[in-house]
Amino acid sequence: MTIATRVDLSLRPIAPHDNAAIASVIRTVSAEYGLTADKGYTVADPTLDTLYELYSQPGHAYWVVVRDGKVVGGGGVAPLSCSEPDICELQKMYFLPEARGQGQAKKLALMAMDFAKQQGFTRCYLETTAFLKEAIALYEHLGFSHISEPLGCTGHVDCEVRMLKSL
C-alpha cells in the first residue's frame, strides 16, 4: 500500500538572496524543455540574475515557491513594455518537477493577476511555447484566450503562443 505524503510548499515575495536560486530554476527548467538562449527564451534575458531588483520597481511583483528552504519555482507580473499602459504581462513562471502538480502555479498566477488589478491594469498578456503544454492548459483554465499577434516588445521571438485575459 502506498501512502501519499503531502508536500509543504510556501509562496512568498522574492528577496535579494533569491536571485541566484530562481535564476538556476529558470535555467534548469529551460534546459529540460530545450528552451535555449539563442532562440530568445527567458534564459537570454539580461535581467535573469537580478530578478529581485527588476521586480522591486513600481507595478512589478515576483513570488518564489519554497520547499524545505529551497527555491523550487517562481513567477511574476510587470507592465508590458512598448504597450498600452493598461496591459501587464505574466512573466517567468517556472517550476522544478518537485513543485509541479501542487497547485502553486495556479495560486501564483491568481496572486499576480490580483496584484495587477490593484495596480490598475485591465488586461494581462503572456507568451509561452507549445512545448509547455501543462502551462498552456493552466492559462486556458484561468481564462486566457489565444491571440495571433504579439503585443509589446518582449524580445521572445520564439514564443509562438500568445494569450490575453481581461482582469
Automatic annotation (TrEMBL):
Keyword Acyltransferase carried by entry: yes
Q: What is its EC number?
A: 2.3.1.-
Task: Please state every residue range assigned to the domain named N-acetyltransferase.
Answer: 9-167
Which EC class heads this enzyme's classification?
transferase
**Would the keyword Endoplasmic reticulum be found if you checked this record's keyword annotation?**
no
> Which is one GO molecular function term here?
acyltransferase activity
Q: Which InterPro entries match?
A: Acyl_CoA_acyltransferase, GNAT_dom, NAT_camello-type
The entry's keywords: Acyltransferase, Transferase
Protein name in the entry? GNAT family N-acetyltransferase
Source species? Atlantibacter subterraneus
